[in-house]
Specification:
It is a single chain. By secondary structure, this protein is α/β, with parallel strands linked by helices. Helix content is 40%, strand content 23%. Helix 1 runs parallel beside helix 2 and helix 2 runs parallel beside helix 7. The longest helix is centred in the middle third of the chain and has 23 residues.
């Protein structure tokens, strides 16, 4: 299976999540890529969208390889990928320096994306966590760990595509996983999309605005 773009993937996920339409659900997108997948789900479920700001901690000199991740919150949550840290020889000072840099970016995005918006309540609700795909799972695991501090009633992880290795790790962290395509090995998520552009801050803000507008429609 492959998807034309994130919007098509989101529409297919919305079909798979239809049963949550009459529940008190909130759709939690992981920006930037997750917002375009989440928007069709919000429309279908008539659910609000919010964001969980999480950043991969890339290996120094090889930033695409995750040595961990950090997620926003009253107390930021960090997850370490000990396998990557071990074979790369990264010391604590280098790890902390990358974490500090990415936390600064999280704070920038927080101010930009949420300025003038009312907070979306998560406690006691069905939290549907959406991204455009999962490779190693380190970033999503950090997001879920941070989300649990907000006390949702249930956590559903919903993604178009994910590696089987990552899914095996993440199933223990959530109540349910909805995935359209499993990959037998780690690989670039973009290979599952014909059109997979990098999204901008403006794209994220536009998606949040559209989600708010869609909920107000009769």
């Amino acid at each position: 299976m492959s998807f034309a773009n994130r919007k098509e993937a989101g529409e297919q996920l919305a079909n798979a999540l239809e049963r949550f339409r009459k529940t008190d659900a909130v759709v939690i997108a992981l920006p930037r890529g997750g917002v375009e997948v989440a928007l069709p789900i919000c429309r279908r479920l008539r659910a609000p969208m919010t964001l969980l700001l999480v950043r991969k901690l890339g290996l120094p000199g090889q930033p695409e390889l995750a040595m961990g991740a950090i997620v926003d919150g009253e107390t930021p949550v960090t997850v370490r990928n000990e396998d990557v840290i071990g074979f790369s020889g990264v010391d604590q000072a280098d790890f902390d320096a990358v974490a500090a840099r990415e936390l600064t970016e999280i704070h920038r995005r927080n101010r930009l994306y949420f300025s003038g918006r009312d907070p979306v309540a998560i406690e006691g609700r069905v939290a549907i966590v959406v991204d455009d795909g999962i490779a190693t799972g380190a970033t999503v695991r950090a997001a879920i760990k941070g989300l649990k501090a907000r006390k949702p009633a249930k956590i559903v992880l919903a993604v178009p595509v994910a590696s089987e290795e990552a899914l095996d790790m993440l199933r223990q962290d959530v109540d349910e996983v909805v995935v359209l395509e499993g990959l037998s090995s780690l690989g670039a998520i973009g290979f599952s999309y014909r059109d997979f552009p990098q999204l901008t801050d403006a794209d994220v803000i536009a998606a949040l605005n559209e989600a708010e507008t869609a909920r107000k429609r009769p």
